[in-house]
Design a protein that fits this description.
- The complex is a heterodimer of chains A (322) and B (293).
- With 322 residues, chain A is mainly alpha-helical.
- Chain A has one domain.
- Chain A has helices at 2-13, 15-25, 33-55, 64-80, 86-108, 113-133, 135-138, 164-187, 189-199, 201-206, 211-237, 247-260, 267-282, 290-303, 307-313, and strands spanning 152-154, 157-159.
- A two-stranded antiparallel sheet of chain A has the order 1-2.
- In chain A, helix 1 (2-13) packs across helix 2 (15-25), helix 4 packs antiparallel against helix 5 and helix 5 packs across helix 6.
- In chain A, 53% of the residues are buried.
- The longest helix of chain B is centred in the first third of the chain and has 32 residues, at 5-36.
- Classes of the chains: A mainly alpha (322), B mainly alpha (293).
């Protein structure tokens, strides 16, 4: 069938279009609509993580920090500061995440390799403890409650996003923009330098690139995507649990990205979908479903380091740390 | 604020005991990293396993001393199996992969502990011989906590003697300096790696067994500890055992003293100190710049 082959070629050449087509019908392929939104949001979170780990070669074990800052930023703006505009509230989260990413990135990038991984984790735990104790602002252990479900104001046209499907397509629009943004970053000269740093940081430095500054910029972009994911999740749940800053959240995004395929364009979404569908199925049988996830993850690290998408497409395995 | 020395002193001693637990964990992490450039994320889960093994053995044998001796050996044996059958497959793959693998392992261990022993923690009593308090002249202090300090000091001295006075210790030190040269001299380093990984895990198990009667046993007890122990290793200087000891005791004091003045800040201060050290001296107290990054 020449038609089908042409479509397949088009999808290969236009990953953003392919993404949009698939996720436009995605809510009708999963058991329930809320799961579709969750896959989209965690996929975006993993996309941010993948920019740093898969493309720049920096393993962050504390990405919950930027996801949590995004969630708290939007949550506090809407629930505590009572901002009347959804757009302003939605912008506050990623902004906070970018500021946090810039500050934490500055400290963590003073060390490389394994140190970097554990330092990012330490800073995420620091934020967790701060959110836990600052109960007046963050709601502490109970989580931040009372985030209103404001309608989207599109040039004076108000659309409610209270139904799961309406929210899905609202998130879908923003995630599509993010995926296009990532494609733009990866296709730019800056994106090539990121991959050069992943392959050999010293050689990139010898070519005259300011490696630490470029890594820092990649860190901040990564925090921006993670922060937007957190902000969307705060809107989806209408609450920010303090666990969004916990190490488990950081671990989840690592697992999702590696399951899907680090350093591949679609890997983060494949991984987020696989993880969340597994969780959905397994948690019906046992509360201890993370045992199975952990074992599957260990199997992937040992035998399939390219992940699902990377193995299917023969993509590379971005494990090299700079 | 009026602060009397008599009120702060117990806090300093409590901090010292916490510092000992930090040192035991950090030494293991540092020893494994120094030789194998592997960060064992499962170190905290092994600490937890040490505490639960003590609970199990205590119920089985009714003898604390047997439990304290056997629990670290059980955890050490488990560590040997982990190195032989999991981590060994990843040599030559870059340092991120062992970290990822041991992260997955710690997730499995924590959830398995919840499956076996329940989500709610268990409490452990110190042995009757050490149940009371000792009058130190200037204050009374729980005997068990003094015992923890004594055990740690003895273990550290034994480890120091092992590393500096035996042939195997010599090979370990040489192996962390230049593994290629050691292999060129005809020494099979893979057996040394196995041994060192086992020793490091046994130390984590001992830390858990000692901490059990003070802090109880619960599935996630190791998560915060492994992160804080890693902070200790960073502050002390990666791969430096002296650094781990000095930074471990210092961090214990930081937590102990902050707990007295502002309890809510205690967990945060550890990270503040780390950030300051990173700003002033990125390689830590005793670390060499750029060592094994």
């Amino acid at each position: 069938m020449p038609g089908a082959a042409a479509v397949a070629r088009w999808l290969g050449r236009h990953p953003v279009g392919a993404f949009a087509v698939f996720f436009a019908v995605f809510p009708f392929l999963v058991p329930y609509k809320a799961l579709a939104s969750q896959v989209l949001i965690f996929g975006l979170f993993a996309l941010g993580f993948n920019l740093l780990y898969g493309y720049t070669g920096l393993l962050s074990f504390g990405h919950a920090a930027y996801y949590g800052l995004g969630a708290y930023g939007t949550g506090i703006a809407l629930a505590k500061l009572k901002l009347g505009s959804l757009w302003l509230g939605l912008a506050a989260g990623p902004l906070l995440a970018v500021l946090g990413g810039a500050a934490i990135g500055f400290f963590c990038l003073r060390r490389r390799g394994i140190y970097f991984a554990m330092l990012t984790l330490a800073f995420a735990q620091l934020l967790y403890f701060i959110a836990f104790h600052l109960a007046d602002i963050t709601g502490g252990d109970d989580g931040l409650r009372g985030i209103p479900q404001l309608p989207v104001n599109l040039f004076g046209w108000k659309i409610s996003i209270e139904s799961p499907l309406a929210f899905y397509y609202f998130a879908f629009a923003l995630v599509c923009l993010s995926v296009a943004g990532l494609k733009r970053i990866l296709d730019s000269p800056f994106g090539s330098v990121l991959r050069a740093i992943r392959e050999n940081g010293d050689r990139a430095a010898a070519c005259g690139y300011d490696v630490r500054r470029i890594k820092h910029l990649s860190f901040v972009f990564s925090a921006l995507f993670a922060g937007l994911a957190g902000a969307l999740d705060a809107l989806r749940l209408a609450v920010v649990p303090v666990e969004s800053l916990y190490w488990v959240t950081s671990g989840q995004v690592v697992i999702m990205t590696l399951l899907g395929g680090a350093g591949t364009f679609f890997g983060p979404f494949v991984g987020a979908g696989t993880f969340l569908l597994l969780e959905d199925r397994l948690s019906a049988f046992t509360e201890r479903w993370p045992i199975a996830i952990g074992l599957i993850f260990m199997t992937f690290v040992l035998f399939l380091p390219k992940g699902i998408w990377g193995t299917l497409t023969g993509g590379r395995h971005g494990h090299q740390s700079a | 604020m009026e602060v009397s020395l008599a009120a702060v002193l117990p806090q300093i001693f409590t901090g010292l005991v916490l510092g000992m637990i930090f040192v035991l964990l950090a030494i293991g992490l540092s020893l494994i990293f120094g030789l194998m450039t592997v960060v064992n994320f499962a170190h905290g889960a092994l600490y937890m396993l040490g505490a639960y093994c003590t609970v199990f053995l205590l119920g089985f044998t009714r003898n604390f001393w047997v439990a304290l001796l056997v629990a670290p050996l059980m955890v050490g044996t488990f560590g040997l199996l982990v190195e032989r059958f999991l981590i060994r497959r990843l040599y030559g793959r870059g340092p991120d992969d062992p970290l990822l693998l041991t992260f997955g392992l710690s997730l499995v261990l924590i959830e398995t502990a919840k499956l076996i022993w329940g989500k709610i923690g268990l409490t452990l009593d110190p042995p009757r011989e050490l149940g009371g308090a000792v009058n130190l002249g200037f204050m009374a202090f729980p005997a068990y906590r003094l015992f923890v300090i004594a055990v740690t000091v003895v273990v550290l001295l034994a480890l120091w003697a092992f590393l500096t006075r035996t042939n195997v210790g010599l090979v370990i030190r040489a192996g962390s300096r230049d593994p290629l040269m050691v292999r060129a001299l005809g020494i099979d380093l893979s057996r040394i790696w196995l041994l060192v990984f086992g020793i490091g895990c046994a130390l984590a198990g001992l830390a858990g067994a000692l901490a059990g009667p003070m802090r109880g046993a619960y599935a996630e007890m190791g998560v915060t500890m492994v992160i804080e122990s890693f902070v200790v290793v960073v502050v002390g200087g990666m791969g430096s055992l002296l650094g781990a000891v000095v930074a471990g005791i210092m961090m214990g004091q930081v937590v102990g003293i902050t707990t007295f003045f502002a309890p809510k800040l205690a967990e945060i201060m550890v990270f503040v100190v780390m950030a300051l050290v990173l700003l002033v001296r990125p390689s830590g107290f005793f670390g060499e710049a750029g060592l094994m990054e």
